[in-house]
Task: structure prediction
Amino acid sequence: MSLNAEQIVQNAEQLPPPPKVMTDLLTLFARADVDARRIADIIAADMTLSLRTLKVANSPFYGLSKRVATVHEATAILGFRALRMLVLAVGSAQLMQLPPALRASMGHLLRHSTRCAMLARLLAETTGYAAEEAFTAGILHDVGKIVLAQATPIQLPEHGADADWIIRSDVSAERAAFGTDHAELGQILLRRWKFPDALCEAAGRHHESTEPLPTLCALVGLADRLADTEIDNDDFPPAALMPWISRAMGDFAMPAPNTLLTVIAEADALARVLEADA
Result:
């Protein structure tokens, strides 16, 4: 008999808790009166996050004309909004580390999660929802796959250290193998880590097709599907996406296919930088 979801999360002993700086930053980012200098001070005080943030800021992804040496300088040059996205991406990539034997699968997980994050932000901007909350929910939506990747060698020894099985699997296969799925496990894990309720719910419900679905869950659910959809200018959107578009977008028009493709290309470029820094 498969372990239940709570037991699987409990047994994932190799998963460290998120750095306190990440939960502190998420709390501050949610405030309307957030101060950019205060955020930069907090990032600068954490050596690991600061170094990784500066490494990505100085990568070709941002194409800066000169290197930045401090987080405060990065804030001044990139702007607070870009820095917030960067820090959330770097911090979330840090949370989604796989054990050494499973690292070969990290690229796909990071690429998909980064695509989902940037697409969710675009959809949120289109509909007037909080864009940065959507970005954060998108990049964390599949965190439960890390738990399943660690459980796979124990419960499914025939797959050994092949984490691709779980990274690329669907919820039906997960439920058949484990009695649970990455969405439920992600929600439990984020709650244990004391992440905001909205992010926990988005992780847990991004595969649901029930009505009504909370806006953030619907946005992440649509972004999740767009991230792996072949976008064709002549045949978009495909019929399979229509229920998800209706739930997430309401009366708002979908972004044009070329806009979606541009965002996906930017997400892939960011994912490559994050993977190289992992």
